[in-house]
Amino acid sequence: MMNCFPCFTSQKSSNPPSGNETNEHVENEFRPPPVAAVKHIEERETEQPPVKTFNFRELATATKNFRQECLLGEGGSGRVYKGTLQSTGQLVAVKQLDKHGLHGTKEFQAEVLSLSKLEHPNLVKLIGYCADGDQRLLVFEYVSGGSLPDHLFEQEPGRKPMDWLTRMKIAFGAAQGLDYLHDKVNPPVIYRDLKAANILLDDEFYPKLCDYGLNNLAPGAGDSMFHSSCVMDTYGYSAPEYTRGEELTVKSDVYSFGVVLLELITGRRAVDTTKPNDEQNLVAWAQPIFRDPKRYPDMADPLLKKNFSERGINQAVAITSMCLQEEPTARPLVSDVMVALSFLSMSTEDGIPNALPVSSFRDKSMSIALSRHGSCSVTPFSLLQKEGDDDSSSVSSESEDDDDDDDEKKEESKGSKKKKQEEDSDDESGSDDEKGQEEEHSQLEKPGSASRSSSSDSGSERESPIDESNANAQSSEIKYSYSSEEEEEEDNERLSSKSSCKSDNECTSFRYDSEPKNTSIAHDDHSDDDEEEEEDEDENHETRLEHVQSSKSEAQSIYSDDDDDDDDDAGESSLNRFEPKEEDHGSSDEE
Ligand SMILES: Nc1ncnc2c1ncn2[C@@H]1O[C@H](COP(=O)(O)OP(=O)(O)OP(=O)(O)O)[C@@H](O)[C@H]1O
């Protein structure tokens, strides 16, 4: 049975509306008076998820009567079977929830309703459910490639170890899924159970998060046993505040994400009891190394055989260490992590990730930290200092040039950079160092150019992309930008001055002192051009979001200026069961 209700008619619903159900007037006739609280309760009682309802027999047939050979595995909330829907031939994963702590049909449907509203390419899609007698089953799309640990930790003979770029792409995709839950859904959804095993991969290693939002469906949810078993399940991934018994926030997910990122970088499990005592807990093992950037490249999975750029690993480890900060408020927003990873996951001709534009991040601390860590490989601070001394004026004056001038300069700079790289390749011993220095230089230059590009109408006039993925980098630079030129210059100054900071100050500057900011702050700084662009962007919003949500996307606009739209859209089909704060209920209750 497929039902559509007004709150599911946003782009998030995959089901086509049927008949007059989409007619608001008709719909309203059946609605109780708009008294928020009453309406909320009554809607919960009457609404049914806009996903398919299966009867038990259908799912028994699909899974060959839940035969052992179809069993994919068993987790904390029940067994998962591979099945084929007879009606369509679609492959599915059928999750048979444990009967222990069984939910009533209404309660179960309410949870499914919440789940069904979440839709993103990096989330395993809920297809339907079954509430038949005492059976409670969820039907998900089948993800064919297994889970991340299968590929990262299980070395099958003849299978190549996962390469660096693939690892970064997986991290980027997972970050996109998490960003959707945190930032595109209102109120935010806290994952609570992010771990490598919950990242499923398709045959092309495209990642999809599973088990999101299942907390209220897990057996015994709400009782004390549930809490303790949850610690067991996510041992190694749980944020320190969880073990301290404090409330979980989106930043707790960021911590868990940091652990996954660390696993991807090191090829080590979050907890590995086969290792010596002091290496069994991955985070504890990594903490001393985080404080010594020179050792970052040593953290890499030996199976990678050093096939990664030094800048890439330095920045990846820097991001990871930020995610794993003890204090939740010191951790970055997943949206900033996602932007950083978008750059690390792009293939470039020389294998060195593109410079990260300062304006890409909501919180500039991320770009400052990354530019610092990106330069760790050779002569980090002295180089930045030198450039700050020699070129800072040219950097800031360059930011005042018009677009054409800038493009010409970039072309020239690109040409000379390429030429230099060719020269460098003759001298292998110095090549890495010098490349690093060149990149460092561009890192200071690019933020300004990103800002300029944001006010130009097209990214196509910019330097020729090196390859398709690199073209994405160009467009992402343009679309991420939302800060004013003054802000950019300020950032450049900050970058130069940070380079000479003493370590204590640096630590302070890397902390994220604020909770997610309202991006309307950014709107204040918009030029008229930006506003025009904003209108254009609004029109293309839906299309663009689709691009953003896929690591295979053509363009990567994450920080669009139309966040409000996002919120509105997401609000329409938002998940209400996982909001961290009581006051967040308000808006969704009114819907
Ligand atoms: N949509 C899916 N497609 C393919 N395999 C899946 C799907 N969902 C789950 N699986 C697989 O089924 C098995 C059990 O999954 P499940 O999520 O229940 O357990 P878990 O993640 O290991 O533990 P927990 O639920 O306690 O976090 C895992 O091997 C998982 O990879």
UniProtKB/TrEMBL annotation:
Spans annotated as Disordered: 1-30, 382-591
Q: Does the keyword Iron apply?
A: no
Q: How does it sit in the membrane?
A: Lipid-anchor
User: Sorted alphabetically, which InterPro entries does this protein's record hold?
Assistant: Kinase-like_dom_sf (IPR011009), Prot_kinase_dom (IPR000719), Protein_kinase_ATP_BS (IPR017441), Ser/Thr_kinase_AS (IPR008271)
Its main subcellular localisation, reduced to a broad class, is membrane
Skewed-composition ranges (Polar residues): 8-21, 550-559
Q: Where is the composition biased (Basic and acidic residues)?
A: 432-444, 493-505, 512-526, 578-591
Which cellular components does GO assign to this protein? plasma membrane; pollen tube tip
Where is there biased composition of kind Low complexity? 448-458
What Gene3D superfamilies does this protein's entry cite?
Phosphorylase Kinase, domain 1 (3.30.200.20), Transferase(Phosphotransferase) domain 1 (1.10.510.10)
**Biological processes annotated in GO:** pollen tube guidance
Please give one Gene Ontology molecular function term for this protein: ATP binding
Query: What does the entry list as the binding residues for ATP?
Result: K95
SUPFAM superfamilies noted in UniProt: Protein kinase-like (PK-like)
Which terms are listed as keywords in the entry?
ATP-binding, Cell membrane, Kinase, Lipoprotein, Membrane, Nucleotide-binding, Serine/threonine-protein kinase, Transferase
Q: Where in the cell is it found?
A: Cell membrane
Read off the PANTHER family from this record: OS07G0668900 PROTEIN (PTHR47985), RECEPTOR-LIKE KINASE LIP1 (PTHR47985:SF77)
The family line of this record is: Belongs to the protein kinase superfamily. Ser/Thr protein kinase family.
Write the protein's name. Receptor-like kinase LIP1
Where is the organism placed in the taxonomic lineage, from the top? Eukaryota, Viridiplantae, Streptophyta, Embryophyta, Tracheophyta
